[in-house]
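Appendix B. Chain record.
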Amino acid sequence: MLVIDRGSREREASEELEEICKKVKEKGEYSFTDFCFLEVEPPYIEDGIEKSLKMGLDSLTIVPYFLYPGKKVKLAVSEVMKFQKDTEVKFVVTKPMSMHKTLVDLVDNRIVSALNENQVDVESKKVDVLVIGHGSKDPNAQMSLNYVVDGLKEKYENVSRCFLEIEQPDIFEGIKACEKNNPEVLVIVFYFLHEGAHVKTDINNDLKPALENSSLKKVCITKHLGTDNKMIDLIVERAKEVENAN
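Structure tokens predicted for this chain:
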């Protein structure tokens, strides 16, 4: 298996991908797992394919490791498939990490963990949730985030979403909208794969002043999605979908 990530200069992103590949190899019983980046930093796709093909494989499962379908996924897939003509190793490509019930479960895990870590003991129907996504010009990206938001609505009082950039509502507007509901507790979900610059810095540049100027009583903030075991389950499940079909 070769996992293709967008790419990040943050050391934590590579460390998380190493951990993910290790867990996926074990759970999916793969002979080889590795990751590469579409852009920003090496190893790039060419490096990842070259290393993979040296392993004497019969087939290679390619995982576009993106939360949203869109241009980046299409670019990653088209880049990797350029190498198919030069090898007898069969490439199969999974769907990205979107529009799947396991993602809803993963986010729910993050919410429950944040409440426990903050020693907040209230029933879920008294909890509001705000999911912060990256934002994209691709309409399918918003559809993917809405899928997660809608999947959480049965359990929690109010569930909404906002975006770091590109789309509206932005983080300030998202917090204002939550204030109107006057929640007993608000859990803010960082809907990002890695602890990159967005999670470390960019979100907080907007979120901290927005919260300081709000009248919200109790706010808990989740960790990003990271190496949660549910993510490992999702990667393996996506892989088996295409492997079993071929």
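Further analysis of this model is presented in Appendix C.
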